[in-house]
């Protein structure tokens, strides 16, 4: 009886081993779970799988329709099927104040084409692009501010290859009213001289700028025809500071204006000039009239 039981157990062991061997053979030949083992797909280079008129072997996006074959970054992969990492929006940081407002921001991208520095006034619907900056730029200063105005700023990073943008946070800045006062320093005329410029009469006026917040100067010319005649006073120029020769920031700088003597009769006498500094909030007193030239070119 014992011998019969041992023989039966050995027979079951061999049967189990045989079944396991058959299962392993089926698994390696057909794949685990009975699924077919994946085989590599070979592309037919002479076919046109995406039906865009370009053979697979020549198509930079063989599975995506792109008859134009646009490849903005010239890396061999068409724009239509190339994957781009999404742009990360810059983080605009609190500005530094001075004579201008200086901004800085973070840049976590490596393939941007540049930045748009944008500004609008409080209440405006739309931002306008104040400056387009090169890739990897991290700072910008705005020096075109008006006192007492609230501006809202943002920075937009952009990439041309896939026409995408990412917009930063917005920062609000209100400029100070401290400069909303007229210029305080009256200019000082240093010299008035007449000279001949290739046969053309000219009179040069040089004065010292004694203000720091003027935006323009006003020059008046006065002449008369005789001691008993009335004087003629004309505002010659009302120009922005940037139009003045030798312009520089701050006070103590010399300014120059050349009068071409247009409109002065040749028999005029006692040609004189005076200057005052001005801005949007007022002006200084005029200087005293200086110069004593006639209208002849000699």
Overview of the structural elements:
The chain has 298 residues and is mainly beta. It folds into 3 domains: 2-27; 96-174, Immunoglobulin-like; 188-293, Immunoglobulin-like (Sandwich), CATH 2.60.40. Helices cover 10% and strands 35% of the residues. The strands form 4 sheets. Strands 3, 4, 6, 7 and 8 form a 5-stranded antiparallel β-sheet that branches. Strands 11, 12, 14, 15 and 16 form a 5-stranded antiparallel β-sheet that branches. The protein has a 3-stranded antiparallel β-sheet with strand order 1-2-5, with no helix packed on it. A hairpin with a 2-residue loop joins strand 9 (188-197) and strand 10. The model is unreliable at 1-38 and 237-250 (pLDDT under 50).
Q: Quick gist of this model?
A:
The chain is mainly β. The protein has one helix spanning 2-30; strands at 96-97, 101-104, 114-121, 128-133, 139-142, 150-159, 164-167, 171-174, 188-197, 200-209, 216-224, 232-240, 253-259, 269-279, 282-283, 290-293.
Strand and helix layout:
Elements: H1 2-30, E1 96-97, E2 101-104, E3 114-121, E4 128-133, E5 139-142, E6 150-159, E7 164-167, E8 171-174, E9 188-197, E10 200-209, E11 216-224, E12 232-240, E13 253-259, E14 269-279, E15 282-283, E16 290-293
Antiparallel strand pairs: 1-2, 2-5, 3-4, 3-6, 6-7, 6-8, 9-10, 10-13, 11-12, 11-14, 14-15, 14-16
């Amino acid at each position: 009886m014992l011998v019969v039981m041992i023989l039966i157990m050995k027979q079951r062991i061999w049967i189990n081993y045989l079944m396991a061997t058959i299962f392993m053979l089926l698994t390696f030949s057909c794949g685990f779970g009975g699924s077919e083992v994946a085989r590599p797909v070979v592309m037919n280079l002479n076919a046109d799988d995406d039906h865009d008129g370009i053979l697979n072997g020549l198509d930079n996006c063989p599975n995506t329709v792109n008859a134009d074959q646009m490849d903005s970054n010239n890396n061999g992969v068409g724009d239509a099927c190339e994957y781009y990492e999404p742009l990360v929006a810059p983080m605009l940081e609190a500005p530094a104040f001075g004579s201008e407002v200086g901004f800085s921001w973070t840049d976590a991208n490596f393939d941007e084409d540049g930045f748009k520095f944008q500004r609008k006034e409080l209440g405006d619907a739309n931002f306008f692009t104040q400056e387009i900056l090169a890739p990897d730029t991290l700072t910008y200063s705005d020096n075109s501010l008006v006192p007492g105005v609230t501006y809202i700023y943002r920075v937009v990073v952009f990439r041309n290859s896939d026409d995408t943008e990412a917009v930063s946070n917005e920062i609000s800045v209100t400029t100070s009213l401290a400069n909303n006062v007229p210029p305080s320093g009256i200019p000082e005329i240093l010299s008035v001289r007449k000279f001949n410029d290739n046969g053309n009469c000219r009179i040069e006026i040089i004065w010292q700028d004694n203000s720091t917040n003027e935006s323009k100067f006003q020059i008046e010319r006065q002449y008369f025809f005789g001691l008993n005649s009335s004087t003629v006073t004309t505002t010659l120029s009302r120009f922005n500071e940037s139009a003045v020769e030798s312009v520089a920031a701050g006070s103590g700088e010399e300014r120059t204006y050349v009068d071409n003597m247009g409109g002065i009769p040749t028999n005029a006498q006692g040609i004189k000039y005076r200057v005052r500094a001005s801005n949007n909030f007022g002006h200084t007193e005029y200087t005293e009239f200086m110069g004593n030239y006639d209208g002849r070119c000699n």
